[in-house]
């Protein structure tokens, strides 16, 4: 109990390097950049949950663009993935949460001058952009968390690591102040948390578990808002469930499995293979095969929907709108195929027009069965 009380007091009593709360605005699009610390926040969702709970009327949008291994000047991606700037534009970012410094810290003290220069360039360049087409973004720069000693003989105790992270955290604070950027020191606060917490905050010393993610989110919340408020735990659980569901769908859109075959070099590649002497065959690219598969599924779905609705209309039971929705979703999916080839929608439009004509007839039959002649004319 004493350790828990000390933990609570520590969260309340920390000092912030920022004189004012961070100026969130209604409708802000917050894009999260950075390394594994940023990427793994999608798994537990506490930071986003707590910020939403403090600003329920702001209608904030969060998009996690974190990518394990990312550094300020090194962000490896599959061909066709899009640059970090492309994704900031696509997410209409006007607030950028930047989590860097941990991977760079392995360059040690001799790497500090280059890191400070790279960070200064990153901040200045980011502040000069208008990713939403209107305004320069506001930035929150986050330091790495401290390395936790979880007393595992198979893992480092973090002493040497923390010496480097401390140097880089101080450098980040200096560069952030020079650029008038909001800075959140996660190193000092987590280092203190480790000393009073009875449970580990990480799974391996450097990657947060759910308990650690919640405590770090509380640190971030208090530094962003400069105060503390009481929260309804039932409401937080419901809000967090929605955040986690959104994060799941977003991550599977942003980090599509086998992206190289969907939007990269293999997406439109034709492989030439020799089947027999003097005879060449072309292997269709995977993207085309997927489109053909979706088209077959669309036709089968349409046949099933039409057959079932024609039967239920006779009994005046059908609500055709419920059947139309999956067809519309298929149509939208084809039009928004990741390769960006909108011509796909045109190729699939003729069969969809036929389906729409037949569904219109089904709607009319149901309306007549219910005695609603005006609905037929509409």
Outline of this structure?
The strands form 2 sheets. Strands 2-1-3-4-5 form a 5-stranded parallel sheet, sandwiched between helices. A two-stranded antiparallel ribbon has the order 6-7. The protein has helices at 2-13, 36-39, 41-44, 46-54, 84-90, 112-128, 159-178, 186-196, 210-225, 233-254, 259-262, 286-314, 320-335, 343-369, 373-377; strands at residues 29-34, 61-64, 95-99, 138-142, 182-184, 271-276, 279-283. The protein is built from 15 helices and 7 strands.
Please state roughly what percent of the residues sit in beta strands, choosing from under 5%, 5-15%, 15-25%, 25-35%, 35-45% or over 45%: 5-15%
User: What does the average pLDDT come to?
Assistant: 80
Quaternary structure classification: single chain
Number of strands: 7
Helix content: 40-55%
Evaluate the radius of gyration: 27 Å
Largest sheet entry:
5 strands, parallel
The outline comes out as globular
> Low-confidence runs (pLDDT<50, min 5 residues)?
278-283, 309-321, 334-345, 359-378
What labels would you give this structure?
378 residues, 15 helices, 54% helix, single chain, two-stranded antiparallel ribbon, alpha/beta, 5-stranded parallel sheet
């Amino acid at each position: 109990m004493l350790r828990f009380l000390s933990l609570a007091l520590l969260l309340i009593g920390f000092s912030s390097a920022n004189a004012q709360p961070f100026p969130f605005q209604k409708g802000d699009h917050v894009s999260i950049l950075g390394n594994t610390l940023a990427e793994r926040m999608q798994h537990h969702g506490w930071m986003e949950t707590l910020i939403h709970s403090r600003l329920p009327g702001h209608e904030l949008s969060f998009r996690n663009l974190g990518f394990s291994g990312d550094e300020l000047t090194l962000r490896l991606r599959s061909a066709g993935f899009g640059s970090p700037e492309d994704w900031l534009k696509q997410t209409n970012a006007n607030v950028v949460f930047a989590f860097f410094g941990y991977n760079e810290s392995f360059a040690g003290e001799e790497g500090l001058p280059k890191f400070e220069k790279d960070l200064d360039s990153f901040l200045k360049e980011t502040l000069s952009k208008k990713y939403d087409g209107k305004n320069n973004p506001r930035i929150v720069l986050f330091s790495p968390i401290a390395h936790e000693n979880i007393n595992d003989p198979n893992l480092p105790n973090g002493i040497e690591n923390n010496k480097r992270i401390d140097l880089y955290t101080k450098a980040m604070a200096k560069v952030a102040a020079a650029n008038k950027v909001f800075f959140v020191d996660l190193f000092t606060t987590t280092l203190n948390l480790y000393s009073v917490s009875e449970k580990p905050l990480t799974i391996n010393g450097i990657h947060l578990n759910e308990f650690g993610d919640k405590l770090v989110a509380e640190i971030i919340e208090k530094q962003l808002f400069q105060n503390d408020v009481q929260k309804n735990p039932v409401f937080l659980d419901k809000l967090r469930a929605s955040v986690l569901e959104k994060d799941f769908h977003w991550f599977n859109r942003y980090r599509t499995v086998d992206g190289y075959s969907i939007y990269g070099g293999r997406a439109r590649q034709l492989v030439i293979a020799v089947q027999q002497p003097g005879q060449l065959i072309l292997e269709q690219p995977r993207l085309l095969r997927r489109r053909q598969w979706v088209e077959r599924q669309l036709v089968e779905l349409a046949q099933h929907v039409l057959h079932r609705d024609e039967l239920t209309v006779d009994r005046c039971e059908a609500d055709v709108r419920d059947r139309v929705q999956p067809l519309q979703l298929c149509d939208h999916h084809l039009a928004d195929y990741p390769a960006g080839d909108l011509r796909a929608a045109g190729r699939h439009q003729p069969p969809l027009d036929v389906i729409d004509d037949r569904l219109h007839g089904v709607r009319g039959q149901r309306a007549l069965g219910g005695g609603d002649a005006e609905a037929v004319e509409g």
